[in-house]
Design brief:
With 329 residues, the protein is mainly β. 6% of the residues lie in helices and 52% in strands. The protein has 3 helices and 16 strands. The radius of gyration is 22 Å and the shape is globular.
Length: 329
């Protein structure tokens, strides 16, 4: 009965429908995913990051899943990296596998090299596939024996294929203040995705994938030597779809254990509230989060949203240099 009500809700709201890309609640835990200009912007030799998210398990037979792994490293004023990500959703096993390479260049704009501007680009491709034979269509509905779907009936849909490959080109820019002993470390960034607006369709139509834009900003406030808070905002725009995210992170340093305890709270406007906890020790950062749904789907999801986990390993320099602070921590 729950699934029937969900279908009715979708049909009744068809005149005003908003789509949603796969997204991350801990979006800045994956810096290369957020903004190409963050490639190599950290104090270390190299960094590897993995992240996994599952969402809508409460209402979907097959939930949305997101998995990614990235590697990046700084080289003088440059940063180089690569990212593999996979997105999967739905009973038709819709799948998008993406491979990207990225490069960034950082320019100090003052003599002390505290104020920095970084610019970066990403390029690669995405392979999208779907098993449309697993879907049901309106003309396959039969009224005999109480009604039901018969997948053996020809759906009369003219699919051009089950798999497509589209090119990807993205760009990003960011300003950040990197003085380590400062009370405040602000940053602001902008990124643009799908700059080539490639054709994206399993049919033969001219459907174009619209550009997607991110604006993110925040400031790390060093309350004491051992405590920091980091309020931040993310605004996403793609065609008429707009999403706003407001968040605050906090960290407390345990001196004896040489470990940062981390926590965070995210509010995604009219969609979800996410709570995260984690720790940073030596070369490692690990975090987990959970979304509590607050949208109009809440009566059917009973508040349940998505589970997410991230892990980062950074190979540190033996003699760290003052200058580069990753804006997320």
């Amino acid at each position: 009965m729950k699934r029937v009500l969900i279908v009715i809700l979708i049909i009744c709201s068809v005149t005003k429908t908003k789509g949603q890309d796969f997204h991350l609640s801990m979006y800045d835990a994956a810096p290369v995913f957020l903004n190409p200009s963050m490639t190599g912007v950290f104090d270390g030799e190299w960094r590897i990051h993995t992240q996994y998210r599952t969402q809508w398990k409460a209402v979907n037979f097959k939930p949305y899943t997101t998995g990614l792994i990235s590697f990046d490293m700084p080289y003088k004023k440059w940063g180089f990296g690569a990212q593999l990500s996979n997105f999967r959703a739905g009973i038709g096993n819709y799948n998008a596998f993406q491979a990207l390479a990225s490069a960034a260049y950082t320019v100090p704009i003052d003599a002390n090299k505290f104020h920095n501007i970084s610019m970066g680009t990403q390029f690669g491709g995405t392979q999208k596939s779907i098993e449309y034979q697993l879907h049901t269509f309106d003309n396959q509905y039969t009224t005999t024996n109480g009604g039901g779907f018969d997948n053996t009936i020809d759906p009369s849909e003219l699919f051009a294929g089950q798999s497509i490959v589209i090119p990807e080109l993205n760009f990003g820019a960011m300003y950040y203040y990197s003085k380590q002993l400062s009370k405040f470390n602000p940053f602001i960034g902008f990124s643009a995705f799908n700059l080539l607006t490639p054709t994206e369709t399993f049919f033969s139509g001219p459907n174009k994938l619209p550009m997607r834009f991110y604006t993110h900003a925040g400031v790390r406030v060093n309350v004491t030597e051992h405590i920091f808070v980091l309020p931040k905002i993310l605004v996403m725009q793609q065609n008429t779809f707009r999403e706003q995210t407001f968040a605050i992170d906090a960290g407390f340093y345990l001196h004896e254990a040489e470990t940062y305890l981390l926590t965070g709270l995210v509010y995604r406007n009219r969609d979800a509230i996410s709570v995260s906890v984690g720790a940073r020790k030596s070369h490692y950062i690990a975090k987990v989060s959970y979304d509590f749904n607050t949208s109009t789907l809440r009566p059917f999801s009973t508040g349940r949203g998505g589970f997410e986990i991230s892990f980062t390993y950074m190979k540190q320099n033996y003699k760290p240099k003052e200058g580069k602070i990753c804006p997320r921590l």
